[in-house]
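Budget justification aside, the reviewers requested a transparent look at the raw inputs and outputs of the sequence design task funded under Objective 1. We therefore reproduce one unedited record. The lines immediately below are the structure tokens for a 210-residue chain.
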């Protein structure tokens, strides 16, 4: 019996999608982070990013299934960079508490410089996203500023008659009340200005000592 002739297409292996590239993913993330924080994520489209990077939208969606997923990755990247800065400072154990606090404040300021008014305006219209940002911010403040204040107490630079938890929760309560998109827009202040001001008020008060 003659063998049945195979269809040529049946021997052809199925076409596989190319695996996402870590390098391309990093490029997309870097470009999106710069544009989202500068222009606001509502004003930046996937078409804009594809054109700037010289890739197709198909490539973008191969790495990030939606613009919302890309925004989530950008915010996670920002969280990781702030955590890295805070960890570097608090792990150094600088000999003087004021120096350590200044270094920590300077690191936070540097990271906050990236956030522009357009991004904050967009965040005010996305409360579910900002809620996740607040939760991560609270975790960083409790962990790293708490560690620094406890070290300050051990070294004799911070009062020991007030629990560190109370100091940190006071700072955190002020940050949550003021460092939100609506209040920042109302006050016409940048995040870095507010954070440094709150920290200074917590440590030194508002009264000039003569």
């Amino acid at each position: 019996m003659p063998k049945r002739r195979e269809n040529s297409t049946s021997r052809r292996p199925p076409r596989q999608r190319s695996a996402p590239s870590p390098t391309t993913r990093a490029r997309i993330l870097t470009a999106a982070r710069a544009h989202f924080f500068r222009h606001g994520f509502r004003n930046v489209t996937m078409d804009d990013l594809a054109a700037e990077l010289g890739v197709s939208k198909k490539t973008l969606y191969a790495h990030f299934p939606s613009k919302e997923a890309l925004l989530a990755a950008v915010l996670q990247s920002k969280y990781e960079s702030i955590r890295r800065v805070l960890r570097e400072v608090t792990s150094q154990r600088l000999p003087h508490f004021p120096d350590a606090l200044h270094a920590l404040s300077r690191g936070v300021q540097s990271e906050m410089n990236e956030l522009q008014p357009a991004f904050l305006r967009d965040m005010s219209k996305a409360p579910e996203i900002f809620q996740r940002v607040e939760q991560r911010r609270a975790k960083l403040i409790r962990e790293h500023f708490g560690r620094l204040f406890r070290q300050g107490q051990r070294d004799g630079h911070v009062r020991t008659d007030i629990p560190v938890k109370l100091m940190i929760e006071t700072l955190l309560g002020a940050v949550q009340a003021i460092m939100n998109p609506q209040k920042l827009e109302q006050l016409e202040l940048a995040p870095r200005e507010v954070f440094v001001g709150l920290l200074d008020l917590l440590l030194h008060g508002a009264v000039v000592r003569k």
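Confidence is low (pLDDT under 50) at residues 1-18. The radius of gyration is 24 Å. Computational costs for records of this kind are itemized in the attached budget.
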